[in-house]
Design a protein that fits this description.
With 111 residues, the protein is mainly alpha-helical. 62% of the residues lie in helices and 5% in strands.
């Protein structure tokens, strides 16, 4: 039960980055995110421009965007979800995470 709550908390924290849930209308422009936007967002996180995001880079970006993590444990859980458990997150994994997160938000919004 505790790990389920922690996972839900981590997803909620990550959802703050995912923006609005897209409209069901496939022609609706609002809420849709282009790959170029994800590229720009990834570059915002990737301060040293090495093509990978670290936990410290994600935490710094979250704080700069106005969404600081309440604790190091929260940041660590959120980063593990984003990176798939790896020490660094590639741009490919970042895009996959973002897409999965938006699907989760969409599913939750329709329950």
């Amino acid at each position: 039960a505790e790990s389920a709550r922690q996972l839900a908390d981590a997803y909620e924290r990550l959802a703050e980055f995912a923006g609005p849930v897209p409209d069901d209308n496939p022609d609706a422009a609002e809420g849709k995110l282009l790959l170029t936007d994800l590229d720009s967002l990834f570059k915002l996180f990737d301060k040293d421009r090495n093509g990978r995001i670290t936990l410290s880079e994600m935490s710094a970006a979250a704080a700069a965007l106005g969404f600081p993590f309440e604790s190091e444990a929260d940041a660590t859980r959120a980063f593990a979800a984003m990176s798939g458990g790896a020490q660094e997150c590639t741009q490919e994994r970042f895009v996959l995470w973002w897409t999965e997160l938006r699907c989760v938000k969409l599913a939750i919004s329709h329950t």
